[in-house]
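Why does this matter for the project? Reviewers at the last site visit asked to see concrete outputs rather than summary tables. In response, this paragraph embeds two records directly. Each consists of the residue sequence and, immediately after it, the corresponding structure tokens. Nothing has been edited or filtered.
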Amino acid sequence: MQREHAGKPAVGSLMSAGLRILALWLLLACALPQARAADAVEITHAHIELADEGYRLAASYGFDLNHGLEDAILHGVQLYFTTQIELTRPRWYWFDEKAITAKQTSRISYNVLTRQYHVTIIGSVQQTFSTLDDALFLIRRPSRWLIASRSALKTGELYNVTLVMGMDRDYLPKPIQVNAFNNSDWRLSSNKKTFIYKAE
């Protein structure tokens, strides 16, 4: 009997902690409608270059987070940003050929204990920053991203490039996600940027 009694406070503490986290997420979810959206993401620069290992995308983005998104990060919500690129080759006799389709996702989070921001390029690097602005700089100006091998494109051919970048709400916690998908204030994304690339 004593052992059962000793275990009850620990179970109760775990349940209490879980309820507190759920309550926090619900509180943030309810606060979503009050969060004003920042301007849309602007693709300020984008070009493709050929490297030894393949084709790389060099791009930079301009955007700011509104106060609602900043508060969400400080309260433990991780935000994700996904860049998607597609290269197609026009064909007069059939549908356009999809030569390259790729995407890359970055995650930004905040550690309350260390008071540091963490940015992770999923499947690649992770870095730590002392300020939110420094952390966002890595997302705004990511390193050149390998989008395909050298054999993916035909030398001398012209390709239509379509690029889009924005916050990926699919990764949000479920209680927040439901509200975010119905809230235009959290649709932080770019318009499609298109340009022509001649394969080297």
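We now turn to the second protein, recorded in exactly the same manner.
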Amino acid sequence: MQTGAEVIAGVGLADRPRKSRWPARMDLTQSLSGLVLALFMWGHMFFVSSILVSKDFMWAITKMFEGYFFFGRAFPGIVSMVVFGVLVIFVLHAFLAMRKFPANYRQYRMFIGHKNLLKHGDTTLWWVQFVTGFALFFLATVHLYQMLMHPGDIGPFESADRVWTGRWWPLYLVALFCVELHGGIGLYRLAVKWGWLEGKDADASRKRLKAAKWVVTAFFLVLGVTTLAAYMKIGYDRRDDPGGRYTPAWLVNPPQAPPPWWWPSWMRETPK
């Protein structure tokens, strides 16, 4: 049914411009890519924190991703392929997120005034997510490129040497706080936006989600700092002779240090 203004103007329904679906599609893609990256970072944190169990365990996790336990030898290129996929998703997510950033100083001042006036918790969280996301444009890209080009330099000694002797620990420390804050807030905002875990009382559900977000963020920050400290300690102990590659004791001298009984015989060969 046409409005009076449309009848007077002689505008029919067929003449109305169709609303584009692309903003909604880009918003959905941004949400999905952010979810994938956040879940990947949680998994990544658990993998690198394997050093807290033992050097041998961290070595085994590394070799698993290099295909050693499947092909009988390590292929670091597998890690490069995974990193490349993550890098593509990261760039896509960043490109889509930029649509919502202040485009100029005027918009920036308007947002800051809006935030300060309302003093709304979720608006402040968005601002923290914006700042940490901007920092990750640089921090995460550098790290991903290094892993893409040098996938074989991952291991108890290799990673520790990079962290301490290579002086990557300041970047990793800042990146740790940025990625955990950014990812945690992002997952919280996704849950609120799409109504995940929403009960009968939306306000109560939001409070529970926010509390859970801070608990999870605190857990991963403690785990991340402890893990980084462990690599720094190993690197510091090796500061006079860096550059060596770690090999489990049972591969160096099997008679004196046999592998656990549950390791298959084909895993006992020295990796090539």
